[in-house]
Amino acid sequence: xxxxxxxxxxYLEKRRQAKPPVLRIExxxxxxxxxxxxxxxxxxxxxxxxxxxLFGSLIEQAGLLGIKKxxxxxxxxxxxxxxxxxxxxxxxxxxxxxxxxxxxSLLSDEKAKEVVSAGIDEIKISMDGVTKETFERIRxxxxxxxxxxxxxxxxxxxxxxxxxxxxxxxxxxxxxxEEISLLKKRWKGRVDSVIVTRYHNWAEENEDKLTLLQKLQxxxxxxxxxxxxxxxxxxxxxxxxxxxxxHMILGDLSRxxxxxxxxxxxxxxxxxxxxxxxxxxxxxxxxxxxxRL
Length: 293
Fold this sequence. Notes:
The protein contains 12 helices and 11 strands. The protein is α/β, with parallel strands linked by helices. The strands form 2 sheets. Strands 8-7-5-4-3-1-9-10-11 form a 9-stranded mixed β-sheet.
C-alpha cells in the first residue's frame, strides 16, 4: 500500500497546478427534496444563496487564474437560486464550461429555456428510479412525473442550441439496483448518458463498519485536494463536496483571494497528510468511502 501511495502522491504533486482545474460554487444550499441517500437532516449551517457581488468577484478571480470549468452546485438545488440564469451568463462571459447538477423537479418549460439561453454547457440530473414507486421512495418530497417532465423540457429546449450535454445519474443501492437496465432503456438516444454511481457514506461511517477494501482505499491520497476547490454560498472554502456542514474550512474569500486559499496553509496541510498516508488525522477523511482518484 505504501508503494501505491507513493506513486499516486508523486503523480498528483507533478500534476498540481497554480489554479484548481475545477471550481465548484455552491450558489445555494437550499433544497426542495429530502432524499434518503442524503444527510441533509444533520446539516446545521445556515441556509442561504450566494450574493451576486460575491459570485461576480469569484468568477473574476477564476477568470484571471485561467480556470475553465465551473460547477454551479454543491449541497443544494441550484434551480432554487433566482439568479441562476445571471450566474450562468456571468461564468460564460469568461469563457468557462458551466455545469449544474439538479433534481429537475423545477425544470419547467420556461426554466429550461432560460438556462439553455444563458449558455449552460452541461446538466446532470439525479434519476434514482424508472418507476414512480421506487423514485418517490428514494427521492422524498419530489414527484416522479414532475422530474420526468423536467427532463423532457430540457430535451426540447436544447434541440436548437444542441447543448447542454444531458446526463442522468442513478445512485445504485438495494432499493433501485434492479431498475438500472430499465432506466438506460427508457432514456436511450434521448439523453447523452445514464451514469450509475455507488452509494457512499458522506464520510460519516464508523471505522469498524468499513470493509477491508475501503480501509485500504482510504490510505490513497484523494485527488479532489489537487483538482477541485469547493466554495460554499457564504464564501468559505470547504475541504470538499462531502463536507456538507462546513466542518473543515480551508479559507474564506472575505479574507483571502481564491489563489491565496488554493496555495495556502489549509490546503497544504491536508495534502501533506494525504501524501504521508495520515488521512486518519482528518476526521472527514478517516472513514470516507468515496473513490479517491
